[in-house]
Amino acid sequence: MIELTEQQLQALEAAGATPPRVVNPRTKETFVLLRVDEYERLKEDEYDDSPWTREELQALAWEAGKHLGWEEMDEYDDALEKCCDQRRSRSSTTA
Predict the structure, then answer these.
(1) Strand (E) positions, the chain?
(2) Which candidate, 63, 54, 41, places its Cα nearest to that of 81?
(3) Domain boundaries, the chain
């Protein structure tokens, strides 16, 4: 374990809610200094980095459209459903 110098302790205390950043002078890599309880909490949280499903992509597109004022454009939702149904029926007849 590495103990902090007095100067480092002062910087840590002055950082407040924002975790302080430290730089390796040789490699110029930047690190974030976290309390152990914060690190453990972050480590416990599950992070799903798998590819997005079609449903997730559609939900994301819907949310983006809603923010752009497209929520009243139901004909586009219907067109998407029709397109997906046609692709499904084509793939089932060719299989």
Answers:
(1) 21-23, 30-32
(2) 54
(3) 6-44, 54-94
